[in-house]
Design brief:
Blueprint lengths: L2 H44 L8 H7 L11 E4 L2 E6 L4 E3 L14
Antiparallel strand pairs: 1-2, 2-3
The structure holds zinc ion (ZN).
């Protein structure tokens, strides 16, 4: 491939990419709208198992890292939670040491 052809190729690639990402964004927004509506219905079913109004608090504390000197493990609702520095959240399955998969440095 000579230089001009390569440039033309890259230009067309870029255009295609931008078009695709615009489309993807559009679709994503539509999906999100749909998911939001479906999510409400699903949420009602899920709420049967969980106390109401707890959902937001639930997700919040899991993302709060333990401060310096605080234990990396705690028991909430009878479950042992470990803090994974790689997930940057509390997990019942593993702590920082037991983390597998992508790691955040
Ligand atoms: Zn983890």
């Amino acid at each position: 491939m000579d230089r001009t052809a390569a440039d033309a190729h890259m230009a067309s690639e870029r255009l295609t990419y931008e078009d695709a990402s615009d489309l993807a964004e559009d679709n994503y927004r539509k999906l999100k709208d749909k998911a939001g509506k479906k999510g409400n219905n699903r949420g009602k079913k899920a709420d049967n198992n969980k106390p109401k109004g707890n959902k937001k608090e639930d997700t919040n504390w899991k993302k709060v890292a333990p401060g310096p000197g605080e234990p990396q493990q705690k028991v909430v609702n009878g479950k042992t939670w470990k803090y994974s520095a790689h997930c940057i959240c509390w997990s019942t399955t593993h702590g920082t040491d037991g983390h597998t998969g992508p790691r955040r440095s």
